[in-house]
């Protein structure tokens, strides 16, 4: 250990001076200092190993303690560091002593630290130890410390109290936020909080609804049951005194109201109210209508019983100048349009009476101009008259209002006359007659001569009553008392109905309304005939009835009469299904159309004739010519009018033979316009001869020969089709037996078509 007394002393002095001034002791450079460790409180300084800048001592044990102001931390900046070996160690602690291991920032030896390294404290103090062993050390350290302020930390969002609010959103250190409670709540705690070092200086305040309070200058605000909106508690007696400015009244407007009915009460009172105005007592769970005081001083009192509380109340109060009309209030047996507590000049309230009552007085009241506002009239009165005439389809009749000044025995008559096609249903809303002399009789008609329908007295079970008539008379009688009780009934007109007429087989019904004067129509299905009235109408009457029995629909079994054509005749009058009728026309007329019609039925429809009726058309008088003059013969009859159908017979003189038809018939022309003609050519009378047929038979023979030649030419090898062969043979046969030329149109035979597949035609064959 090398000691330099002067330097040491100087160092102490220096340190003392600078410490007193809060400054770092400044060691003159290049000169080593002998002390080790030290207490440092300045804002900055140097931590030096013993003998720095020369090698530190053996067996050194130095303690450095650095203490900065609160809310500061320390930064160590290494200027130089080296020790000889691991036994020469600088250990750095957070805090003011060598604390437990978790306070150690680090132990450094050798070259574990170098120039430029920075170590920060967590708090405002550091504690360093430097020890060296017996072995000669080399090196040392030069570390600068600096005290630095801890950066400012903002406070968390403080939130807002329930039923309150906050003003201010700056949560930085030093900022202040304010709190206030909603109307009706009182603030408990600090109304303003300040942020210091990351936390608020006080707890968040709370807002509570209190039990009672004195409110002076009560212009507007809120009053809540204690603890609102939580339930209030048992056995409370809370009083709120409200003083509104002179010349004003207080209006209470309830937002919520729930008190145990009949056990917990809110009393609203003003001391100088008129004598006839009772104290207002509120209970239950119906939100009360607005309440208006008579003076400017109001006392509210909540008194709760022993049971657990309910939801309580929330009301707003407001002082209002006395320049208005006060709600005239409800009337008995009537309703008003009143919805406000206050009415200003010119505003109106209208009244109407309940069903069965009549309004006496003014229907509408208007608030008059003036300093003390008043209504232009008193509210009207609703009273029930003793009797009346009612013609509407429904109505209400109530027991007549008592006349307190004139309690006499009365008979009251109500005549109800509804539409003649309706009857009346009477239903009781209430019926309670206390007096034995009081009764209500109902008649089924317009006067007391009608049959009584019902008679009620006392609290008789008041069943519904049905009239049959469209008129009903009510007679109510009571004795000379005003306490006979009361009743209320409602009547309705009900359309009278015919009974359901039902359906008719094989028909469609239209109309489901069976009320008087309505009609129901029946339409028979196809194939059925209506018997009776297709439309029936419900006739007014007592009871109403249908004007006709419902009809029937009967199956149609015959066709309609087909009629007879003009000039024609029909053979039968049987038109039933399956029967036929035939028509004929006289001479000179011609039947056009079908002669015979048959009546047929197809399902689901009426029977019908299968054809239309024919007509007899006049034939124009058209005659055949007189037969031509006949040589050597004659004909009968000889008339000049040969109508269609006329027959003439020809005969020849003796020695002559008739050739052709003996009889000719006058027949219709080939078309409708052609004249009639004779059926055949006129015959001739020829002199009788012995050999009459040789020439013609010779001709036939010649034809036969030529056909044979054709056959011979074609038939070699039997190539000719059998059909042709057969036909040719047939022709040959005919030429032998008959003089008439052969016809290829004879339908008996099939004529070969001119078709190459079938072979050559006869003509081609003949040419070939
Ligand atoms: C310690 O190091 C600093 C920075 O290099 C220097 O300015 C100061 O003079 C040194 N102190 C001594 C006593 O050598
Ligand atoms: C530092 O302060 C402590 C206690 O305050 C004391 O015991 C110690 O001797 C002081 N060290 C120096 C070098 O003054
Ligand atoms: C020490 O503090 C300084 C500010 O003074 C900062 O710049 C540096 O990053 C910190 N170092 C560590 C290791 O925390
Ligand atoms: C260091 O201490 C050891 C034993 O503790 C001793 O032998 C040695 O002489 C001391 N060295 C110095 C320089 O004081
Ligand atoms: C230790 O230092 C002393 C004085 O400087 C010196 O005499 C001695 O030889 C040194 N020992 C070693 C081992 O270097
Ligand atoms: C908070 O309020 C309490 C009592 O109301 C008072 O004692 C305290 O000083 C207040 N604190 C602050 C920070 O205002
Ligand atoms: C209200 O005032 C009256 C008298 O002035 C007093 O007796 C009462 O305690 C007060 N109530 C409250 C809640 O402050
Ligand atoms: C009463 O309250 C009103 C409104 O809050 C205010 O304008 C008035 O000055 C107050 N009067 C008194 C006497 O406090
Ligand atoms: C109110 O009614 C009374 C009697 O019915 C009538 O004399 C008076 O004029 C009415 N007043 C108004 C304002 O209609
Ligand atoms: C009802 O009308 C009848 C005539 O139909 C009449 O005699 C009677 O006075 C009227 N009753 C009332 C109350 O109007
Ligand atoms: C019944 O027929 C008549 C006459 O065709 C018609 O006026 C009436 O509306 C019909 N009624 C119904 C219910 O169809
Ligand atoms: C008369 O004519 C008819 C048909 O025109 C014929 O069928 C009939 O054979 C002929 N009679 C005689 C005798 O020629």
Automatic annotation (TrEMBL):
Source organism: Branchiostoma lanceolatum
Which residue ranges are recorded for the region named Disordered?
Answer: 736-768
Signal sequence span per UniProt?
Answer: 1-22
Name of the gene = CSMD2
| Protein name (Swiss-Prot/TrEMBL) | CSMD2 protein
Domain CUB residues, every copy: 36-148, 211-320, 386-494
Sorted alphabetically, the keyword list is: Disulfide bond, Membrane, Repeat, Signal, Sushi, Transmembrane, Transmembrane helix
**Per its UniProt record, what PANTHER family does this chain match?**
PROTEIN CBR-CLEC-78
Alphabetical list of CDD domains matching this protein? CCP, CUB
- In what residue span(s) does the Sushi domain sit? 153-209, 323-384, 496-555, 557-618, 622-687
What are the disulfide bonds? Answer: 211-238
Spans through the membrane: 701-722
The family database entries (InterPro entries) matched by this protein are listed as: CUB_dom, SEZ6_CSMD_C4BPB_Regulators, Sperma_CUB_dom_sf, Sushi/SCR/CCP_sf, Sushi_SCR_CCP_dom
